[in-house]
From TrEMBL:
Signal peptide: none annotated. CDD domains: DEXHc_priA, SF2_C_priA. GO terms for biological process: DNA recombination; DNA replication initiation; DNA replication, synthesis of primer; double-strand break repair. Keywords: ATP-binding, DNA replication, DNA-binding, Helicase, Hydrolase, Isomerase, Metal-binding, Nucleotide-binding, Primosome, Zinc. The keyword Hydrolase applies. Zn(2+) 2 binds at residues 457, 460, 475, 478. Residues 223-389 form the Helicase ATP-binding domain. This is Replication restart protein PriA. Initiates the restart of stalled replication forks, which reloads the replicative helicase on sites other than the origin of replication. Recognizes and binds to abandoned replication forks and remodels them to uncover a helicase loading site. Promotes assembly of the primosome at these replication forks. It comes from the Bacteria.
Length: 754
């Protein structure tokens, strides 16, 4: 075998394997040779004692490993690449940009079935027909073979043949068919599945709306860029008709024989958007989200790649769906934090989508009422075309917003008496009220009145949240649960009481206070089960007076025509967030939630409870709107060199022994600093390190957490430094490798939460 390698093989295979290691692995070609091999096929290879399925990345004539120690790839799983060239290139870029293993990146991008080595299903369907259309029942079908007779008669009535699923639905089994086939009476033809090329159907189910002048202008501007790369920021206030703009852009894309990829934040929360797509278009749509099982996901992927679906709608991970004929990408609510994956491969689907659009030379539209500061900054710098929709599409008027001072007020379940009066007023007019609080459960803390003890999670630095339905204490960070104790864990008196209010407690209070008005609670707990959320939405759409209480879930894309009062109970938590994005998020949330008020013909009112009604930034948001607010925040970020004016990466470490994480990061900092000095990358224009510092939640799920921030005014030096650091951790520096073995570390490029 050694001889074979030396004499015959001058080619080496670079294979990406599903391991965290940030490198490809070299193999000798399989014994069958390299003729049938091209990048994007799967190979089974030996890896230590195991066999792994990897993706062939390249065939080279060089290797850094002594060829005699290389092993042969064992099996070739595919004749054709299962990963198209552009997806492979995309994944290489993603792995490079996020400093992540290419093998794991590919694992994130492709369906599980493919990762596991399942064969790519045959893209054909079976058509059955009679071999000879005889007038009489052939003699080799016995008169008492009822099933065969029935099948024969059926096919005689359909001489062009019937597809197998149709036959099955008519009660003809595969056994019957193969019996007839053996007798030579019927034959089976394998037909290719129809693609959009061969489907003789119209594109639309229903006529599009007549666009208002603003919408028409936007559609025209984006259409002018058709078939070439350009990024558009579509900033349209809530209710301005962005979705209609998307629909009409997609219509043009489909008419040009191309596909559209649409990313939305969370499928379950935007059933209405989805419904509008399905109502409008007659072409097949695939929907890709976390609720799909493996085979559904695989099917969706195949429909997209075979040009059997015209529209691909999905959440974050759908950004990797390969398209046969890409024509347009739309990112709805582009500011939404759910586009950033928070573990493993910490990618931003929005940023990857922009890369894809550039790579395939097609337009991309980022839509939002409240664009992220990064996107606004890019639009100002003319990297993106900034388009606007400033008017509500229907009759609705923008709501009035009031900052309600609650300083020194006694609150009941978080509600001031002024707010309660307003609720009464709106209910009396037969309207609906929406109360927003970003905290589920009954109360965030169980406290002892005698000694001040609070019920904490044993595994996290966090209080346990009290839940009443069903009654228990729950850690929202690690899922730890326990019964509610009757006595204090420290002084053993029975003087425990709940502090603060979550959705359950507010619901309780409102039921008592506004009886008999129904109270509809919408949070993750009340919407478990598939159709639960849809049912709650249906109740709301009945339009009867009601109070809706909910979390973030209520802030997104819903259209509740009868809601005229929206209240935000706790704006102050956003005002004092430790995260530098806290204020940006608060402004987005207020603007989005306010967009839920008065979307019908009724005027809307928004009340924001705060202890700081004089806060300049809140006032600028309320009186001057999101643009001015965003400009103020951008000016602050610029002063501090924070994104989008600086670039950041975050090393995160989790360890079992508190000091180990700090030790590792101190060592790493030392090495990075030497590297920076050596390469003249230190100083204010180079790379700056901050940390190691304990993470905002220092202990979580029994792991101690540390972090170190790496920042730079330019992207390139930041990535150079991080690439160096990652290399040290992964084998470059033995001491570091030894420390790293005892703990978990990761690197997060463009982190969202820190
Ligand atoms: P956005 O996505 O910007 O929040 P939507 O697309 O949901 O706004 O539109 C808000 C409402 O206005 C929807 O009920 C939609 O059907 C309606 N609408 C949008 N465009 C038009 C139009 N050109 N003519 C009439 N109604 C429209
Ligand atoms: Zn106590
Ligand atoms: Zn916990």
């Amino acid at each position: 075998m050694g001889n074979y390698a030396k004499t015959e093989s001058t080619h080496y295979l670079q294979v990406a394997l599903p391991t965290p290691l940030r490198r490809v692995f070299d193999y000798l070609p399989p014994k069958s040779g390299i003729d049938a091999l091209s990048p994007g096929i799967r190979l089974k290879v030996p890896f230590g004692p195991r066999k792994l399925i990897g993706i062939l990345i390249a065939i080279t004539t060089k290797t850094d490993i002594p060829p005699c120690s290389l092993k042969h790839a064992e099996h070739v799983l595919d004749e054709q690449p299962i990963i198209p060239r552009d997806l492979l290139d995309l994944c290489r870029w993603v792995a490079h940009y996020y400093h992540h293993s290419l093998g794991e990146t590919l694992s994130t991008a492709i369906p599980v079935a493919l990762r596991q080595g399942k064969p790519v299903a045959q893209q054909t369907r079976k058509l059955w027909r009679l071999t000879y259309p005889a007038a009489e029942v052939p003699s080799n079908i016995a008169r008492n073979a009822k099933l065969q007779l029935a099948a024969w008669q059926l096919l005689k009535q359909h001489l062009k043949g019937l597809h197998e699923p149709m036959l099955k639905s008519l009660g003809v089994s595969s056994q019957t068919l193969s019996a007839l086939e053996k007798k030579g009476e019927v034959e089976c033809i394998l037909e290719e599945l129809p693609t959009l090329h061969t489907m003789p159907q119209s594109i639309l189910h229903e006529a599009p709306l007549t666009l208002n002048p603003e919408q028409a202008h936007v559609v025209q501007q984006i259409r002018q860029a058709a078939q070439q790369f350009q990024t558009f920021l579509l900033q349209g206030i809530t209710g301005s008709g962005k979705t209609e703009v998307y629909l009409q852009l997609i219509e043009h894309t489909l008419k040009a024989g191309r596909q559209a990829l649409v990313l939305i934040p969370e499928i379950g929360l935007t059933p209405q958007t989805l419904h509008r797509f399905e109502q409008r278009f007659a072409v097949p749509i695939v929907v890709i989200h976390s609720g799909l099982n493996d085979s559904e996901r695989f099917l969706a992927w195949q429909k997209a790649i075979d040009y059997r679906a015209g529209i691909i709608i999905g959440t974050r991970s759908a950004v990797f769906t390969p398209l046969a004929k890409p024509g347009l990408i739309i990112i709805d609510e582009e500011h939404d934090a759910s586009y950033k994956q928070q573990d493993s491969l910490r990618y931003s689907a929005r940023d990857i989508a922009i890369y894809r659009a550039r790579q395939t030379n097609i337009p991309i539209v980022l839509g939002s009422a409240t664009p992220s500061l990064e996107t606004i900054h890019n639009a100002k710098a003319h990297r993106y075309r900034h388009l606007r929709l400033n008017q509500r599409a229907g009759m609705a008027k923008p709501p009035s917003i009031e900052l309600l001072n609650i300083r020194g007020e006694t609150l009941q379940a978080g509600l001031s008496s002024a707010l309660q009066q307003k609720i009464t007023q709106h209910l009396e007019k037969d309207q609906q009220v929406l109360i927003f609080i970003n905290r589920r459960g009954y109360a965030p803390t169980l406290l002892c009145h005698e000694c001040g003890w609070a019920a904490d999670c044993p595994d996290c630095d966090a209080h346990l949240t009290i839940h009443r339905q069903p009654a228990h204490l729950h850690c929202h960070h690690c899922d730890y649960q326990q019964p509610i104790p009757e006595r204090c864990g420290r002084c053993n008196t029975a003087s425990l009481f709940p502090v603060g209010a979550g959705t359950e407690r507010i619901e309780d209070f409102l039921i008592g206070q506004f009886d008999p008005t129904p109270v509809i609670r919408i949070d993750r707990d009340s919407t478990r089960g598939k159709s639960r959320l849809q049912q709650l939405f249906k109740d709301i759409h009945q339009g009867e007076p009601a109070i809706l209480v909910g979390t973030q879930m209520l802030a997104k894309g819903h259209h509740f025509p009868k809601v005229t009062l929206v209240a935000i109970l706790d704006a102050d938590s956003g005002l004092f967030s430790s995260d530098f994005r806290g204020l940006e998020r608060l402004g987005q949330l207020i603007t989005q939630v306010a967009g839920r008020a008065g979307r019908g013909t009724l005027a809307g009112e928004v009340v924001i409870q705060t202890h700081h009604p004089e806060s300049p930034i809140l006032n600028s948001l309320v009186t001057e709107g999101y643009d001015t607010f965003a400009n103020t925040l951008l000016a602050e970020r610029e002063k501090l060199g924070l994104p989008p004016y600086g670039y950041i990466g975050l090393f995160r470490v989790e360890c079992k022994k508190h000091e180990e994480g700090e030790q590792l990061l101190l060592q790493l900092r030392e090495l990075i600093n030497q590297f920076l000095q050596h390469n003249n990358l230190n100083g204010p224009l180079g790379v700056t390190l901050l940390g190691p510092l304990p993470a905002p939640m220092e202990k979580r799920q029994n792991w101690y957490r540390w972090q170190m921030l790496v920042s730079s005014p330019a992207r390139q030096p930041l990535h150079t430094a991080i690439a160096f650091a990652v290399h040290q951790l992964e084998g470059g520096n033995q001491m570091l490798v030894k420390l790293a073995r005892k703990l978990r570390w990761s690197v997060d490029i463009d982190p969202q939460d820190m």
